[in-house]
Amino acid sequence: MEEVDLSSGEVLNRPGETIEKVYFPLTCLISVTITMMDGTTVEAGVVGSREMVGINAFMGGSETTQTEYIVQVPGKAVKMKAHLLLDKFDTNKSLRDVMLKYTQAYIAQISQNVACNRTHIIEKRMARWLLESSDRLYSDELILSHEFLSHMLGVRRSGVTETAHLLENKGFIKCSRKKIQIVDRQGLKEASCECYEVIKKEYDRLLKFKLKSR
What we know:
The structure is a single chain. The chain has two domains: 2-92, Jelly Rolls (Sandwich), CATH 2.60.120.10; 118-207, Orthogonal Bundle (Arc Repressor Mutant, subunit A), CATH 1.10.10. It is 44% helix and 23% strand. It has helices spanning 82-91, 93-119, 122-137, 146-153, 157-169, 185-191, 195-207; strands at 2-6, 11-13, 21-25, 29-35, 41-47, 68-73, 75-81, 141-142, 173-176, 179-182. Strands 2-6-4-5 form a four-stranded antiparallel sheet. Strands 1-7-3 form a three-stranded antiparallel sheet. A hairpin with a 2-residue loop joins strand 9 and strand 10. Helix 2 (93-119) runs antiparallel to helix 7 and helix 3 (122-137) packs across helix 6 (185-191).
């Protein structure tokens, strides 16, 4: 195992690539994205300090299928060879149980994302996305651009800028160049959709620890 620094925009796995390494984020955030034929990129899920990159390594597959893993917020992660994790997964029941429960929680996250993206307005989705990212980073300061947010939310950059200003005018966040500061978490929670609490409770239930929420 090796601790590494990951840079914003760095691609860890591309569709069809063989998974040779897995990553366990410590202080960084990775988006799981899907790019359509017209070039539209949408976030399918997010990987932070309670998740891993390279889940297929212990699920009988060696490729990332149609998804791409891209570093959203820079920081540190632990990297290890995929075959070593697979060996431990096959021989260590405690590790296997945890990994399978994590997989169930991760599937729940992706499933909720589908419903959220289909039914909720951008203001609620952005509020939820900021809260989830903050929880995983244990920080109310998020280093990212509106352009990057537009890719993650699957909307135009102008829509992200307008929504960010709306949340800022309500006193929930403070925006600056490539940085968003959460200043009123309770207000942001009230502005968010139900999906934030649904996913948080499912992770808490399956993984038996409380996700830090300030």
